[in-house]
Structure prediction request, 577 residues.
Amino acid sequence: MSTPPSSASAWLYCAHGADLTDPVGCRGVHIDGHTACLAHLTDTDRDAYLASLAPGADIDLRGTPITADLLGRLLQAVRDPATERPRFGRAWFSEAWFCDEARFGWTQFSDTAAFREARFSGEVWLPDAQFFGDANFHAAQFCDGAEFSEAQFSGLASFSQAQLSGIAWFDRTRFSGDVAFEGARFSGNVDFSEAQFLAASVWGPVVCGGTVDLSRAVFGAPVTLEVSARQVLCTRTHWQSTATVRVRHASVDLGHAVPEAPLAITAHPTPFTTANGTIPDESMLPGNEPVRVISVQGVDAAHLVLTDTDLSDCLFSGAFHLDQLRLEGRTTLASTPTGWHRKGIAPVRWTRRRTLAEEQHWRAQTAGQPPVPAGAPPEPRRWRTGPHHPDPARTPDPDDVAPLYRQLRKAFEDGKNEPGTADFYYGECEMRRHDRTGTPKAERRLLWAYWLLSGYGLRAGRALGWLAAAMLATIVLLMAFGLPMSSPKQEATGTVPAGGGTVTFVIDKQDVKNPTGDRFTSKRFDKALNVTLNSVVFRSSGQDLTTTGTYIEMTSRLLEPALLALAVLAIRGRIKR
Prediction:
């Protein structure tokens, strides 16, 4: 039997099988009283050694190649008849080579269990194992998955620099002491669902080529997690103390998580660094992927801080205290579709603004768009349905989305982000305008007018366009009906007494005459423009007008200053910080 290469170790080698190509041979430690490891003892000596073991015995099998049959006989030798569990005292398996599957199910380790740099060629099976001392799996290699389901670690559980291929299960595992996953590398998914980390202070940095599942896990102490993965699931995760989760590349699902203290989700811009200065290899992950939070549904957001995250597909419906959510750094949200689109027979173009995923899903469903296949990039000319598109029967309606915009607007206001605040106010008004259940018809009509004239006071171009149109209409109407044919002349009339004396004059104006003939001349245009410009700034021009012109001027002085004010308000909302 050949053994894999190993670094130099501090024990006497068995040296079985040494030759010119492998001068060291077997690297297993000598069994006391023998010059060979357990795997290469004679059958008689091996049987005698196993027969000498009792429950709770100390085991030293460092560097030893261990087959499934040999491991089974070893576990049977230390099986406690009272509990029917194999039970070790101190167990040294450092640099051991488990040639087949390693089944340690329900095993108790009463003292230190050392698997440092051990290699597992087959599946590792330790469900319901109990480690009453420290458990050291530093730099261990698991080549075909590992199961630690329902295991209990009472002391330090170290998996630093460990490499696990396949799927790793730590579900319902209890870590009562500290943990060390620094530099651990999982090529497949790793399941920590319902695990309990009662004293962990630092978790990671961990690199995972698949999903890190922390659903329904419990963190009992202040902790910092550092994870590079494709996906991180924290659904219903319970954080009993402050926590900072630094993430790279991954999408993060916080649905129904329970933070009892501040919880910060932060996109880490550069590769993580371990305590000894090494940078974990992230080659199995796609490069430069943003950290996306895909759900905070059901979360009390009063304790939540999101920094430099992509919220384009994030679902907020059902969350509490969204007005207290803190959005730090650069927050990315989904934008409206680009380009021109046909709505009925008329072409329309959506103005650019940040939107919530709930509005995107509602508009996609209303437009009859099919869901985008999982993994496909969003199309900029369509509303996003995303890989997380919810069941259409449960897609939030406008009356559900409007309160989300209203509460999240407060988060942007607290961050002094006026453009973001403006976009969310626009989104709230849009949802109220389309809400046929919670918004009265009269209010919807007012919102339609407000939207049409100025985009809810947020679209300066629209308000200025209407202002220009109103001014042009005013000028045309004044030239056609408002300006008299000519300016009325003043007349002075009076009576001279026959015998002389004071003469009294009465000064009066001629009646204004309605225009006739050619009304659209440059002179009349100048007068109409003067009246219109004065109306915009709410001033009277002093120009003589016909009765119709007076009413035109009154309407202009009411409407045009309002449109100008809406344009100024919109510009202020876009540039203020």
Observations:
- The chain is about 25% helix and 20% strand.
